[in-house]
Amino acid sequence: MSDSIKKSASNECEKLFPSEEQLAKINEVRKLLGPLSDRSSIYCSDASISRYLTARNWNVKKATKMLKETLKWRAEYKPEEIRWNEIAHEAETGKIYRSNYVDKYGRTVLVMRPAYQNSKSTKGQIRYLVYCMENAISNLPPDQEQMVWLIDFQGFNLSHISVKVTRETAHVLQDRYPERLGVAILYNPPKFFEPFWTVVKPFLEAKTQNKVKFVYSDDPNSKKIVEELFDMDKLESAFGGNDNSGFNINKYAERMREDDKRMPSFWTKEKEKEKEIPPLVDPEPALTSAASNSLNLNSDSDTSDNDKIVASPSDEIDSEAVPTNEITDGSKTVVGEVH
């Protein structure tokens, strides 16, 4: 298995065995946050705080600032209260959906098809993305914090490109859901996507850029990335797998409505206990080393606050087609679903 995929998949093991210094920083962030509402308190589990610290290279002040901004956004946007009936129209074409399979590490998989965009509203597109993120997170096993994005470029063309939607997507993913993405597989992107990617990359932090993998069906080496991550009998044929069942909006709607019923219980103290980091123990030597390596206070992946995208999901942005960036010809979204 490639080193980059191994590293991505092993991140959760490292988080389960934090060093004493990392535990101290988690507690320091918790003190700086001060009194929290019930939902904010549930959200700020040890594992969650660890994700924000990881995103900010274990800089306590930066991580606390980032977390406070997320808590404010969640209090106003209320992502956990979005329900299927509110966004069902955005899902009709199957442009984003949670697959019924996971990767070999148990990570939830979001399938994205930017060419299937059916909405001109950036606000609506982002709200649906947030719903999908919340749903994917609620379906993660207790020992996993990250998900996988599978992005199918079949039918993708220049009309699906919009810098604005991509920027907004990058903002939501990196600032509201840090360290939730384990790997993003871009499957068969067309040649003209390369200059678009050059424009998109500055929106992404180095860590996020490194999680993006290009896979081509006619390239045996890149195909190994998919083969190493998935059971090919369960993987959809669109990504080289053997499952030909395809997307069915009616069946998917039933799944989502059932998930919606479970969402309130997801936000309980009992549920959140499953996500707490266990007391510090003597891990295996390899895990000790991995944990210490993850504490890199000078990592290049950190981005200064001045470089962060400040757009808010609640702001309506006109979809403007641009040959070099994301997805939208005024009615198409692209890889705004890519970061």
Key terms for this structure?
single chain; 339 residues; alpha/beta; 5-stranded mixed beta sheet; 14 helices; 5 strands; globular; disordered C terminus
How would you describe the overall organization of this protein?
- The protein is of the alpha/beta class and 339 residues long.
- Helix content is 46%, strand content 9%.
- It has helices at 3-16, 20-33, 38-43, 46-55, 60-77, 84-91, 122-138, 163-176, 193-200, 206-210, 220-229, 249-266, 269-273, 285-294, and strands at residues 96-102, 108-112, 147-152, 181-187, 212-215.
- The protein has a five-stranded mixed beta sheet, with helices on both faces.
- Helix 2 (20-33) packs across helix 4 (46-55).
- The protein is globular, with a radius of gyration of 19 Å.
- The chain starts with a helix and ends in a 45-residue tail after the last helix.
- Residues 10-15 and 279-339 have low confidence and may be disordered.
Summarize the structure.
Strands 1-2-3-4-5 form a 5-stranded mixed sheet, sandwiched between helices. The protein is globular.
Strand content: 5-15%
Mean pLDDT: 80
Q: Biggest sheet: strands, sense, closure?
A: 5 strands, mixed
Instruction: Output the structural class.
Output: alpha/beta
- Rg, rounded, reads 19 Å
Label the overall shape. globular
Number of helices: 14
Return the string of H and E elements: HHHHHHEEHEHEHHEHHHH
Distance between the termini: 23 Å
- Cross-sheet strand order for the largest sheet: 1-2-3-4-5
What's the total count of β strands?
A: 5
Please describe the topology of this protein.
Elements: H1 3-16, H2 20-33, H3 38-43, H4 46-55, H5 60-77, H6 84-91, E1 96-102, E2 108-112, H7 122-138, E3 147-152, H8 163-176, E4 181-187, H9 193-200, H10 206-210, E5 212-215, H11 220-229, H12 249-266, H13 269-273, H14 285-294
Parallel strand pairs: 2-3, 3-4, 4-5
Antiparallel strand pairs: 1-2
Helix pairs in contact: 2-4, 2-5, 4-5, 6-7, 6-12, 7-8
